Amino acid sequence: MSGISTNGSFNWRPFLQRWQEEWLPRPDQEEDGGSRSVVLGRDPAGEAAIVAAEKRLGRRLPPSYREFLAVSDGWYVDQMAGVYRLGGVADIDWFGDPYDMTSVYEGFLDDDPPREAVLLAGMWRRALRLETDSDASYALLDPGDRDEDGEWALYVYKGWSGEFPDRYPSFRAYMEAMYRHFHATRAERSDFVNATTREQDARVERARVLVLRGRYEEAVPLLEEAAEFGRPHSADLLGQIRHFLAPGHSRSYGGLVADRRYLPEVLPVEALGPAQEQRRVGGDEHWLGMMAARGAEREAAEAVLGAVRDGTYRYAPAGAWGRAVGGAREAARWGACDAAWRVLRDALPVWEQPGPLLVVPLGLLADPVLGPLVTPERGRELLATPRGGQTGPAPEPVPDLDPPGLAWLAESGGFRRSFGGAYRCVWVEGVGPERLPGLVGEEGAALSGPVRPFDVARSARRPHEREDEGVELWEDRAVVAVGRAEGAWSFAFDGYGLHHMSQLFRSPVADASAGGRAVVVWCEPGQASAGGRPDAFHLSVADGGEELYAFTLWGADVERSGAIPEALDPDRLFRPEDSGQEGHLRALKALHGELGLCLPRFALTRGRLPTFTTRSWTRAPREGEGFAYLAFHRTRG
Known about the structure:
alpha+beta; five-stranded antiparallel sheet
C-alpha cells in the first residue's frame, strides 16, 4: 500500500492524495450526474484542535486516527449503502447507545461467551461515533477493544441490515478497506485506469504464471489483494485455486462462462450445485437464467445440467491429457483409484490451457468417476505441479489412499464408524467384473453406471415393494458395488444395505465359482446389549461350481464343512478370550495372506462404482421352518 513509509509507519498524506487523484464516480453515480470533482478530504486539523477534542472527550484518540486527522480533518468515504462521510475533530462524539443495542447483544451471550462477543456487547456504550452522513449506518471506534499498539477497533453497523457489525482492527485498517472498496465499485469503468489498477493487474498476471508453475501459495495473497480491488479475473483465478484446495465446495466462475474457450470446463462445474439439489419448481430455471445472463446457450446448459445430474457427464479434453483422462477413468470405474490418480498425476505436465485464464483442469471435478479422486491433499498436489507449458520442480507425490488387504474393514475409525461394520462380499478369480451379474445377479441384472453405492443400496426397493415382480418376502437380494481387486480378483460388495444374516442364509459361492475360484465373506458385528445378536462371520470357498470348504461363526458356535486350511481355521482366528473385533481383524488378515483378497477402500467409501442386484442370499423356508419379515412405514403425525 502506498501509505507505508520507509520506517514502517503509515504515511497518510500520499495515501489520501492518491485516493483523491484517482477518484471517479461509480457507474451508477455517473448515470445520476455524479461529479468528477468531488473533494474527499478537508484541511488538516491542527495539534491544538486535536488536543481540544481529546480534552472534550476525556480520552486520547488512537494513533492511526489521530495521525489521519493531522492530515485531513474528515473524509468522504462513499461506501454504497453504508457510511458516506467521516467527520472531523469538531464532529466526533460518544455514541451513547441511544437504541439500547447493549441489551440486545447481551442477550446473545451464553454462560461462557467468547471474548469477542463480550467486547461487542459492551461496545455500544463505550464507542466513539465518527460518521456525519450515512444510510442508517454508524462508524464506531471502541476504546475497550484495543491492541498492543493502542489502536481501537472500528465497527461499522448497518442498522437496516439485521447483521452483526463489521469489525476492523483499527481506523487505518478500515480506511485501507474503504480504499479497496472504492476501487472495487469502479473496476468495471473502462476509463478507471491509474497507477493502482496497473499495479494490481500486474499482480494478477504474475500470480497467473506462478499458479501454472506450481507456486500457487505465492499466488494466493497476490490474487486475494487484487480481488479486493475488484480487478478483472482475480476472483476467477483465486476461485480455481480454492476449488482444488476444497474440492467438495461449489464455486462460481461468472467471468469465464461467457467465453466459449472455457465453457466445456466451467459449465459442468457450475452445474454441480443445482444438480445435487432436489428438483423443485423454478430451481433449474433460476440456474439456467443465470447461465444465459452470463452468455451460455440455454440448450447447452440444459444438456450439461442433465448429464451432471444423472451421472453421465464425462470430462473429455483433447490431446495427450485427454488420453490420460480416459485411461484414468477406466481404472477408477472399477475401483483402482490410486492407480487412476497416478495416471493423472504423471500426465498433468502436458495439460494445455484452452485459454490463459484457466489455470487448472477444472472440468475434472465434475466427472462422476474422476472428480471424487481429487481430495484436498491431491488438490494441493495438482496445484503444485507445473503445467500449461510452464516448468518447475515437481511436488512430493501424495501417498496412496488405499491400504493393502482387508484390515481396514475392521478399523474402528474407518468402515465400522461410517457404515456400521456389517458387510458381505463375493470375490471371483480370473473373471472380469462385467461378468458378475451373469454369475450371481438376479434375472435380467445389468451393471449400472458409476454411482455412490451407499445411495443406491439405501434407496433400493424392499421385497414387499417388489411382490408384483415375483419377489418373495423371505428373499434377501443385495445391491452390490462391483470392481476389480488386486491380482485376478473381481468383487461384488454390499456394506450399505439393511440386511442381517439369518438361519436361512445360502452362500452364493457355488454359483459365483462357475467362472473361476470364488470366495464369499459375510461379517456382522454383534450387539452388546442383553439379548442382542451375537457376532457372525461366514467364509466359503468354491471352484468350478463346487464348494471346497466353509465355516459360519454364530457367537461361540461354529458350523464347518470341507478341508479348511490351517491359516483359515476358525478356532485359530476366533478365540474365546478375544473380542469379536479382534477375531474379525485376525480373519481379514488371514484372508489377505492366504488367498490374496483385498478391497479398494476409497472407491467403496468415497468413490463411484457400478452396481447390480444379486439373487437372494437366503433360501426358501423348509417345512417346519418359519421366518419373520418386518416393514416400517414413516407417516406424518
